[in-house]
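Progress note, sequence design subtask.
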């Protein structure tokens, strides 16, 4: 009997989280054991994810490693799991970032360590469930369940305004999800009583119905990306979250919204996706340029990187709704790239915050004199964020622009301004923090990265360079699945009406 890999990837972290609460002893012993158990559980799950990757056949465009078991038979709700070239990269990324998050928190988290580690393992399980679920109800359960551990991580271990940020994060994402629930129930009725995602993708909903369903799903997915103007929860959540919370938030949770567009909006509602594409182009361009300008004005390092995340995800939504093979593949790759680079940038913030307990950019300067290894790693991920050729972000952004230009020249041209602005705020941040003379006495006594911190960064450094130099490792994985989706749904956009609608929308925004 074959090992149910996908179920194992979901269950192993949950078992590890439950086991943590069975440990007994004094606080010091329990905390030490909790860290070790959480790390080894996450590493074991990473090994399972690697096995899943090795078992995956990239030459096939359909779902693989399928699992199906009856769940609530009276309503035809099943426990259906599977992955394709679109979802597997995010399963791998989740499995990679979780042990890194545990290492990042090794010494910075000192209160309720067992609960903290359990929350991260539960979060890993629920997020992997989102990417593997092939039943809409199962997807929705995992989608909502992940709010609980993330809410706790921000609300318990966050900064001074952690409760406000946690509640804002929960309310924004939960309200949008309620509309997704309504769309799910309508699809269930219209399909004759099926929640099967693959079956729903074969149905042809009426164009007017598609528009309403698309808007309901858009409310859930746009908040999670997050798209402008529903992005305001993200900077607060990032600033208040502990370092590992920001890593998992930027690295994985933002990708769930874009994944929803790829799994539901485009294949199930192609006509509505084409109809609303100009609106998405407009919102994406505004996000790319506006939040990049806002990032330039920040004095808090975390806020700057948080706004840069919104800007970078604007490229992703632009590429998804351009609907070409190149743009969609570029968006998938860019999501993975952003997960690597943004995670590393937030970890870099955490390294200096643990030493100085401030995120004020003005308090730094001259770090290269006391932390040369840190400065070198910071430079690599600054260049990756900018999209320097040879780093991973370049490939994703280039493919998005290449594919999007075929159907939307003006939005693509405007999006290029975001690349220039991105270089401005990242290089300016690096200059203010790393170069120059040491003006703060605290900077003079900083110690460079220790072995644990170097080990945490090592896999991200390797991926940033490897995916930049050998992008086929990622592109080949998703190629057939993306091609199958585009071919089956015939996602074609009429250039002139889209351009005209975009111009009208931009004109309305500027008034």
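Output:
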């Amino acid at each position: 009997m074959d090992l149910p890999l996908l179920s194992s990837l979901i269950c192993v972290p949950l078992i590890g989280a439950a086991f943590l609460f069975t440990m007994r002893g004094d606080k010091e012993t329990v905390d030490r054991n909790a860290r070790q158990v959480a790390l080894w559980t996450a590493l074991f799950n990473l090994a399972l994810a690697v096995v899943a990757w090795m078992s995956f056949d990239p030459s096939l465009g359909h779902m693989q490693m399928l699992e199906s078991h009856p769940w609530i038979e009276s309503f035809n709700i099943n426990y259906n799991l599977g992955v394709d070239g679109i979802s597997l990269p995010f399963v791998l990324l989740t499995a990679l970032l979780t042990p890194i998050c545990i290492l990042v928190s090794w010494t910075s988290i000192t209160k309720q360590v067992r609960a903290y580690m359990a929350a991260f393992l539960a979060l890993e399980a629920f997020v992997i469930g989102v990417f593997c679920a092939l039943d809409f109800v199962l997807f929705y359960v995992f989608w909502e369940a992940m709010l609980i551990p993330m809410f706790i991580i921000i609300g318990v271990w966050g900064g001074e305004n952690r409760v406000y940020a946690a509640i804002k994060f929960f309310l924004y994402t939960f309200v949008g999800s309620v509309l997704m629930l309504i769309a799910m129930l309508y699809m269930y009725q219209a399909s004759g009583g099926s929640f099967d995602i693959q079956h729903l993708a074969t149905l042809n909903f009426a164009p007017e119905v598609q528009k309403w369903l698309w808007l309901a799903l858009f409310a859930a997915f746009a908040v999670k990306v997050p798209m402008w103007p529903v992005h305001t929860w993200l900077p607060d959540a990032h600033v208040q979250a502990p370092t590992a919370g920001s890593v998992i938030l930027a690295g994985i949770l933002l990708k769930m919204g874009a994944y929803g567009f790829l799994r539901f909006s485009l294949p199930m509602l192609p006509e509505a996706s084409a109809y609303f594409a100009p609106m998405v182009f407009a919102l994406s361009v505004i996000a790319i340029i506006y939040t990049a300008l806002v990032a330039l004005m920040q004095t808090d390092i975390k806020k700057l990187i948080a706004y840069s995340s919104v800007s970078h995800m604007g490229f992703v939504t632009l590429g998804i709704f351009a609907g070409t093979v190149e743009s969609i593949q570029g968006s998938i790759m860019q999501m993975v790239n952003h997960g690597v680079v943004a995670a590393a940038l937030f970890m870099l913030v955490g390294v200096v915050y643990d030493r100085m307990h401030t995120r004020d950019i003005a308090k730094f300067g001259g770090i290269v004199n006391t932390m040369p290894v840190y400065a070198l790693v910071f430079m690599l991920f600054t260049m990756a964020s900018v999209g320097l050729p040879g780093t991973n972000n370049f490939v994703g952004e280039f493919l998005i622009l290449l594919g999007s230009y075929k159907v939307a020249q003006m939005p693509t041209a405007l999006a290029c301004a975001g690349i220039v602005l991105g270089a401005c705020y990242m290089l300016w941040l690096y200059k203010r923090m790393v170069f120059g003379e040491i003006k703060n006495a605290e900077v003079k006594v900083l110690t460079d990265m220790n072995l644990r911190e170097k080990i945490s960064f090592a896999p991200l450094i390797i991926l940033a360079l490897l995916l930049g130099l050998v992008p086929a490792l990622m592109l080949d994985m998703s190629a057939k699945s993306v091609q199958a989706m585009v071919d089956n749904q015939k996602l074609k956009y009429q250039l002139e009406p889209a351009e005209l609608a975009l111009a009208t929308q931009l004109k309305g925004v500027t008034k």
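The CA atoms of residues 256 and 433 lie 32 Å apart. Work on this subtask will continue into the next period as scheduled.
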